[in-house]
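How it folds
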Amino acid sequence: MRFIKELREGDMISSIYLCKDKKTLQTKAGKNYYSMQLHDKTGSVDGKVWDLSNGIGHFESMDYIQVDAQVVSFQGALQLNIRRVRKAEEGEYDPVDYMPCSKRNIDEMYNELLEMIATVRDEHLHKLLEMVFTEDADFIKAFKMHSAAKTMHHNFAGGLLEHSLSVARLCEFYVKRYPVLNHDLLITAALCHDIGKMSEISSFPENDYTDEGQLIGHIVTGTIMLDEKIRQIDGFPVKLANELKHCILSHHGELEYGSPKKPALIEAVALAFADNTDAKLEGFIELLDGGNNNGNSEWLGFSRMFESNVRPTSR
């Protein structure tokens, strides 16, 4: 198998990829062609089938497909010019090759999460964390393998767990540096801030926005999920519940970034900074890991996340 990260302009390849998206479009001359997004665990690449006559089998989006193609460059990005394609049969491919996964050990990260829960002393917040992360076996299994995003950052299996831990670790540092912060509230908010992504984004191999995700979004959905569990805990203080839900609702920091509220508590400010820091730095790391397709240039190209052309630091 030729992984997408290994492709170079001019290569002739015969390999199997996951077709995440397939569209039938028309050229300016009115001729139909297929435009596709092909994926494996190392990345994605555009594919085009310009001639739909010979050697083009039937397939749909989310099928694994065998392609014979030439790697070309178009507007600074690699693209597959596909000459032959067919739907791959079961046994010809291993689904693991098409599911990007965290470089960290999933079980080790989950154990680290449990250790962080143990540091939360407030009985109501501790109980809430146990309900979310230890009592629902189906939720735990799905959470451990879920991504944190479709494309922007941590968009791999285990990404949601890794991101949640990283944000919580940053918040731990903030508490040590700024003792005014409420440790238990901030760590609880950090670990729970993105649980709404469990319903916002579908599981692999789709890893795409759900109808609920499009209409409601993970910030509101996550707040609702926590509120439902809070109501099951006897004597959970109303003010504490509101403070926790506020942290979740405001964790994107700005209204234009999707938060329905701007931070009004110091813990909410800290959470928004931690979330943004981890998302941006991990996003940049993923750009660096992806390399570049610009020949001898050290520049990686334009990044939508950073709204700038970016490159690695000189060493």
